[in-house]
Amino acid sequence: MKNIITILIITLFFCSCDTFKSVDEYFSEAEQMRSERKPKEALRLLNKIIKKFSKHNKAPEAQYLIAEIYYRDLQDFSKSIVEYDKFSEKHPNNDKVPFSLFMQGYIYSNELKEYDSAKVLYKKFINLYPNHEMVKDVEFEIKYMGFELNQIPELKHLTE
Q: What is the CA radius of gyration of the chain?
């Protein structure tokens, strides 16, 4: 009887915790939580990936998604900037680093209206990635920083 109880306790322990989940299972579950509009649960799972699987190739993707969730889902703009920056620092060779830098500038400019901080990041983008496909977008952002849509000739049609 004692052995059966011990086995049951051990079984319950391993079934109740997610000790045996793979990084892909965590990531899939995080995406599911996000699609169900449960961003905080998604963040919890993505942070587990970063902690448990920091060397896995999904870790950068998880870190980037954390920044995206803070920006797009939770609209916590300051925290999203921190998370985009963390992504760039931890994964400097990742293909998404330029986008991360752009997003930081974009948030400073368009969400927080902190134009000086945005300009610093946009200029850094141009210096680091002069041939990147988004340079024209960055130059556009700098040119029309602080303008309303109806004040930008190229976008005026959107407000009519």
A: 21
CA distance linking residue 38 with residue 124, whole number of Å: 34
pLDDT tens digit sequence for 23-41: 999 999 999 999 999 999 9
* Residue 144 neighbours by CB distance under 10 Å: 16
What's the whole-model pTM score?
A: 0.84
The rounded distance, in Å, linking the Cα atoms of 119 and 114 is 9
Q: Phi and psi of 131, rounded to 5°?
A: -105, 10
77: exposed, middle or buried (C-beta count within 10 Å: 0-12, 13-18, 19+)? middle
CA nearest to 106, candidates 133, 142, 64: 142
Q: Are 42 and 74 in contact (CB under 8 A)?
A: no
Which residues, at least 6 apart from 43, have a Cβ–Cβ distance to it below 8 Å? 30, 66, 69, 70
Q: Can you list the pairs that 48-52 forms with residues at least 24 positions away whose Cβ atoms lie under 8 Å?
A: 48/18, 49/23, 52/23, 52/26
120-129: which pairs have CB atoms within 8 A and are 24 or more residues apart?
A: 125/98, 125/101, 128/98, 128/101, 129/98, 129/101
Q: What is the pLDDT of residue 5?
A: 61
